[in-house]
């Protein structure tokens, strides 16, 4: 047998196989196709997505801050849905028929054989109507889902944030394909930052259904089902009682309060007022509600703790003192003459008193403006920027909620750009020296800065979450940045002594002195060209072993001493001494003095 | 005869390979796009790389491949031993090395090495090339296959072992084995299948074998002896069947009647038949297959990829795919025929028989005419080792065309 014949033997062999297969395919696909298609329909499998409840949030003592409650979500499986029922279903769900049909057309992230979420948080009567008419309303069903529930009588709106239904735009933009229509996604605050921890992992249940969509049973006895993994819980550094009290004190005010544990940066309370009710976002969110919040003149959605950019006023004087000490412009004992005013060029800058020749500690105690006018000029713009940066200004603190501002810390580059190279007046530094002018800080930056001073230079990134508790009950500690501000201890001691005297000496906040807990701090007033001045106070306590550092900002509340200082004093005493002690030793709101 | 660099490329193989790869990628995309896995993008990356590799291989002169063939064979055997010691166990078989996210299956590359080693063995000798009809050469050829087969059966990977065995007869046939000898080897298989199906089939098979043997008009005693051996084999099929593992028995039984075990080994066969059958003449359309999209068939992007073609592209699509495979096999056989280089000629036959065997078993399994044996559909199933190995095979097939006039 020659090679050519052998080739043809192989050709014939292959051709025979080919025709056997073609005949078999023709048998399956052409002659028994209808039968097998019916078989295929019979065998439809519906994938039910099991959305796990979001993780909860707890305070530092294990008390629940953010909880869940069950709610009903209506779903529609497009492949089984009978269009003739469209008007009826739309009526039951209180939607316009066009709205519903548009909704069905745009289902994203899942295929038409699986149920898609159409409306969340429906009332029980809707669910019972669907259940009663199940046979007629094929493809319409409901699921029980967990929605957010806030068990306390305070809000924490800007801290916790809300989780809401994912928008069409974000569904299309998402990386990967985890989210499908009707899913809830953390949209602000901690809900957004810790979305991947809180959401858990979806599970899937496979159910065999017949042509009419009636469920026959679990596929393969549920062996292929993938159980969901519940969301992880967040354990916050927040103190529930302190938060509640702080919100009460800030009621009907505009401003911010933030207190941190100076040893590690954990946030003890966090208030931005006015705020809004998070439960408005828990279930179905009326677009009107959101629109109203967005356009409210009081800006309730604006986070005054992290997004505000106001001049710090006299609370900036610790920063100026440390900068001047470390740059060698002054020493802890050197003195500067402080008459009642300071003239630079042809402009005179006023002070609220004449103090003679004083050192840095005294300058802080009495909040001597002339002292700091002069320091502003002496340290110069480069040191001003360098030390500002070192103490955490002009940069984000890295707090674990989104949309923080960096604030504004002027530098040579900034001023050159704004006024032209070297064309800006040196006189700018005079106002900048007392924390006024083109300088913007946020309360969270101020709190972190105060805590760092209290801790002699240990700067901790402020943060809410201390631990994450996983589904299997293991706890994972979150680590945040800590850095040391490299300066001699005696500089911090001098500055702290000044802060001590502000409260316990003859300073601007002597009204909040307490006999059991040594409070220290500094008042400030941010000049406001468009209304009443803003009231600042930063402080820490107890003096020898700081456990709380605080920053209070009251918008248009006037002097630091008249609003912010007593409010901060109340909160510090409440935190350290408890409720009864604080009531017994009440700090009165007073008409404060200029700082 | 200096030629243009691009002349001599076997365009038939190049285009058909690209066509099959594209169909495979579409099928993998359809089977996985809702699952959140990256099988599609991985396969796409390696398909592009593989086509380049195939083209590069097609430029390598035959003497270089032949020279390296024994070393390559030796290396593959070492890897097959190592995988038994250090491999990763996936679904019961220790056939993978895992590097980072990727698995490498040495048995895929051993296929190429074994074909090349046999081709080299049969094409070199002091007096031209070796006569396969000499018992010593016959046995040596068998040994080249048996060594890797034994190692692969230890993994254990039944399907791949069968692939190795499937290449023996076509290669020997091409190398000049006499039809009589060939028939003697095949006849026990015919008898065995007959015996398994029942007494009537057994007797019919025996009669056919006897008639064909007589037609060869060889020594009557030898013919009679062979018949007796076949007779004995026929009777021992039942005993051997009982010695198989129960799951292997179930799989064989399920070929003949899948309904005996609808949720076990028959499950996939029924589901894949339903999937293919429900496709009709032109299919349900790309991404529209209910069986495919509902993940009725587990891991459809690997061994059951052909179902998806059947369901979404119907009879038309299924036949076109079969036709593409037939064309590539015919072209490789024709390259073997045209090639004056015996080494490449035999290698081409080895590769085409491997592709044919994969096709018959895999497609046969999905349309319910072959037992469920897990081997991939060449160039279509997801799997990087298998993909690259088939592209190297077609690359060598292309080189047979390029160097067809070199001895």
Q: How would you explain this protein's 3D organization?
A:
The complex is a heterodimer of chains A (595) and B (407). Chain A has 595 residues and is an alpha+beta fold. Chain A has three domains: 29 residues; 190 residues, Penicillin-binding protein 2a (Domain 2); 319 residues, DD-peptidase/beta-lactamase superfamily (Beta-lactamase). Chain A is built from 19 helices and 23 strands. In chain A, the strands form seven sheets. In chain A, strands 2, 3, 4, 5, 10, 18 and 19 form a seven-stranded mixed beta sheet that branches. In chain A, strands 12-11-23-22-21 form a five-stranded antiparallel beta sheet. A three-stranded antiparallel beta sheet of chain A has the order 1-8-9, with no helix packed on it. In chain A, strand 22 and strand 23 form a beta hairpin. In chain A, helix 3 crosses helix 4. With 407 residues, chain B is mainly α. Chain B has a domain of 66 residues. Helices cover 71% and strands 3% of the residues of chain B. Chain B contains 15 helices and three strands. Chain B has a three-stranded antiparallel beta sheet, covered by helices on one side. In chain B, a hairpin with a 2-residue loop joins strand 1 and strand 2. In chain B, helix 7 packs across helix 9, helix 13 runs antiparallel to helix 14 and helix 14 packs antiparallel against helix 15. The longest helix of chain B has 34 residues. The two termini of chain B are 16 Å apart.
